[in-house]
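ingest -> validate -> predict -> emit
validate: passed (alphabet ok, no gaps, 182 aa)
predict: started
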Amino acid sequence: MNIIKKHTFVHYGFVLMIVAALCGLAIGLTNSITAPIIEARLAAERLEAYELVMNGIADDDVLLEDEAFEVIVAYDVNANTIGYVYTVTETNQHGDFIVIVGVDTSGVVIGATFLVYEQTPTYKPITESNLELFIGLNILSEVPNSSDINTGATNSYNSLLSVFNKIKNFQQTEVMSVTTRG
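emit:
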């Protein structure tokens, strides 16, 4: 009787191993089919966001590419530099968001939008209106007056301040030093 139980245990283990291998194969196959589609969709959304925050962008070059911070130089149809597009990932206790910000060559924020917003959904309109406060300001010298912010999304606003401080630091240290050299 022990021999039958022993063989049954091996039999069930073998069956489970085959099922697990088939499931893993199915997941891998599904990923290989959907990954390029998802990547293409994200690239299209990113391009659309670039055009939204940097009107007139015809071409770009990557200046810095990091997991949480990317900078591209935006050019018009005549290959003139029209500004910089920053893609910044920020995380706080409510989740993540990715912001795309367009800054012209003088440092003025000309556009900003969320590429990804994975935080409390009910706070998104408040956070979007707080993001709009930065548009039109010179990133090198101004931040929105804290009395102007819409309350209710304080952590998101603080995360936006962090995003714009990162952009300001890069603009001051990297972009301004390149433009003064050239």
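The radius of gyration is 24 Å.
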